[in-house]
Amino acid sequence: MRDALVKAQAAELDLVEISPNASPPVCKIIDYKKFLFEQKKRQKELKAKQSKVVVKEIRMGPNTEDHDFKFKLNHAKEFLKEGAKVKAYVFFKGRSIVFKDRGEILLLKFAQELEDYGSLEQMPKLEGKKMIMMINPKKK
After folding, report:
1. Could you write out the DSSP letters of every residue in 73-116?
2. What is the pLDDT of residues 87-120, one digit of tens each?
3. Are both 2-48 and 55-137 of the same fold?
4. Are 15 and 29 a contacting pair, CB within 8 Å?
5. Residue of 92, 84, 86 whose CA lies nearest to 63
6. What is the pLDDT, as a whole number, of residue 56?
7. The pTM is what?
8. Thinking of the domain 55-137, which architecture would CATH place it in?
9. 20 to 30 Å CA-CA from 86: which of 32, 99, 124, 140?
10. 111 and 133 in contact (C-beta within 8 Å)?
11. Local confidence band at 140 (pLDDT 50, 70, 90 cut-offs)
């Protein structure tokens, strides 16, 4: 250990302990600031390569009319083209929960229209007062 410290001082570098639990402990003679810089640089590159998943939501009611449906459909197409996931849901207010089948039909029609732009990740599922469906963008 002392020999390594003397060698590091002679080379004007730092003695860095790599694995302290090993017997004998493993050390390396390096420029510690440069080592930290390289490590940060590597982490930054890895972070840049990662892609964050963006989820866009589209809300409809069980009685959504044709024009509104097409308007929301166009928005969903744009979101999927950009590479974002789309979470489409029908929100049931008050007694409109009676029309669960109407909401499911609406969502399935929505998924069918978006078939060219994305694939269905999750079939329509009722969660409380919302019937939710997820659509993934198609890979380019």
Report:
1. HHHHHHHHHHT-EEEEEEEPPGGGGGGHHHHHHHHHHHHHHTTT
2. 999 998 888 888 788 888 999 998 999 888 888 8
3. no
4. yes
5. 92
6. 92
7. 0.61
8. 2-Layer Sandwich (3.30)
9. 99
10. yes
11. low
